[in-house]
Amino acid sequence: MEHRTLVGDPGNVPSERPGTSPTSTATSASTTSSNTTASATTRIPKCARCLNHNREAAARDHKRYCPYRICTCPKCRQTVQRQEFMAQVLLRRRCQWEEDQASA
């Protein structure tokens, strides 16, 4: 896992997932590649906007409290556009699925 810190902010300590340490990260990277089962690795979604600003925050229960939710920097604008596009794609996919279920 890559640790990110803000440039010019030496007091910022990068967040780590519980149960991991810098020494175990190097060994877990080699074992994770050999274990491809879903139960072996648990995916923890991160907030895309916080990642744009070199911070790691779990996405769960974070949407309202994200310090960058109203950020208008180019990376965050691109993230918002991508999220809106994917929401439209998902809506179309669900509508198509409902139509297929109704006609069957």
UniProtKB/TrEMBL annotation:
It is found in: Nucleus. Residues 47-94 form the DM domain. The keyword Glycosyltransferase does not apply. Its main location: nucleus. It comes from the Eukaryota. GO terms for biological process: sex differentiation. Residues 20-41 have a biased composition (Low complexity). InterPro entries: DM_DNA-bd (IPR001275), DM_DNA-bd_sf (IPR036407), DMRT (IPR026607). GO terms for cellular component: nucleus. The keyword Iron-sulfur does not apply. Residues 47-94 bind DNA. Keywords: DNA-binding, Metal-binding, Nucleus, Zinc. Gene3D superfamilies: DM DNA-binding domain. Residues 1-41 are annotated as: Disordered. SMART domains: DM (SM00301). GO terms for molecular function: DNA-binding transcription factor activity, RNA polymerase II-specific; metal ion binding; RNA polymerase II cis-regulatory region sequence-specific DNA binding. This is DM domain-containing protein.
